[in-house]
């Protein structure tokens, strides 16, 4: 009798273990349901590719059909507009250039909210005005969907390698659901608070980035004018208190570092026009909150001048080249 009972408990244990494994497997497989992606530009393209690499079926669209070709070849389904994406997926990521683009993609005539399913999770990784993020969250809530802002830092290189930093704003109880997708594309996923706080963190980061890049460019230019070898000067800065990301990772002087835009005629990377846009967002929020940002304001003026002088599509580190041309005039 004891042997029979022992055998029964053994079989029951095996059965329970099997059921547990089936449940885990089912949860894993269910999490691999289709993900929507809108915006396949310099950042969105590698982000969508990383979702595909992690086994997520992707349905995507972009206003420029030619941008869809690479992800389509990797297995993504391409549709005509954001509404069709929302019709096929209940988790959607958007990566767009500006606030007006986000408003159109979500609330326009062919926008996501036209066909969004109740309970859908909408993650916007664009860098936009925090007030617009709050507006989109309110509009999504009326449709029974959840909107979170999750702008990124790291640039095209980090987007390609899956090492982006995501700054996430939204309902805390939805953070883990967002994190499941974002970890496929990023190494650091940081919860910042309610909707709009992700954008606030990103705007502050980019204002500091612009100020630091201008400072690094001025410093390198001065040192070169004083007869210092640029590689030697960069080495000294990077072992001293002046060290910063713009000097040790993304140096703006051609020939100092390999694999950065300054070594490729400032092609690729993060465009001057986009930096000017982000600095404009910082200025708006600073004005609204009555926050003094004198260096941020000067940085905004410099990058706007660069856009007017033909640098709009060059990487923002081309401010070094801009300063060199200014001194020769």
UniProtKB/TrEMBL annotation:
Active-site positions, per UniProt? 202
GO MF term set: 3-hydroxyisobutyrate dehydrogenase activity; NAD binding; NADP binding
Q: Where in the cell is it found?
A: Mitochondrion
For this protein, the record's PROSITE patterns field holds: 3_HYDROXYISOBUT_DH
Q: What main location does UniProt list?
A: mitochondrion
- Which pathway does the record list? Amino-acid degradation; L-valine degradation
Q: Which UniProt keywords apply?
A: Branched-chain amino acid catabolism, Mitochondrion, NAD, Oxidoreductase, Transit peptide
Instruction: State the EC number(s).
Output: 1.1.1.31
Q: What name does UniProt use for this protein? A: 3-hydroxyisobutyrate dehydrogenase
User: Organism, per UniProt?
Assistant: Oryzias sinensis
**What are the top taxonomic ranks of the organism?**
Eukaryota, Metazoa, Chordata, Craniata, Vertebrata
